[in-house]
Amino acid sequence: MIWEVFRQKKAGDYHTHCGNVHAPDRDMALLFAEVQHGRRMPTNSLWVVPKDEIGEVDTEDVAFGGTTDKSYRWAMTYNFEAAAEEVAASESEQSEAEQQRRSVVEGDD
Hints:
Elements: E1 2-8, E2 16-22, H1 26-38, E3 45-50, H2 81-106
Antiparallel strand pairs: 1-2, 1-3
Organism: Haloferax elongans ATCC BAA-1513
InterPro entries: PaaB, PaaB_sf
Pfam family, one: PaaB
């Protein structure tokens, strides 16, 4: 029987798949998993699951993320050229106003 092994590196981390072991029962699978997958790297815990008990849902079975159109969340058609022109004009006006203030303060007028 094939058993899939999931390893948790440290407490609080997710368990990640690290391989499998061949064993006749759960106790032997736990022992083999400890020897093959738990001693080579830092390990907090191991999960050992019969391969036949693992189910799968893929994109052919279900549309992940829902079917609602949420394209409005991404600004893909935003026209920034008009805004850039407005910013450039504003910077120009601010620069001219600053020059006028300096000339008044320095008494050039």
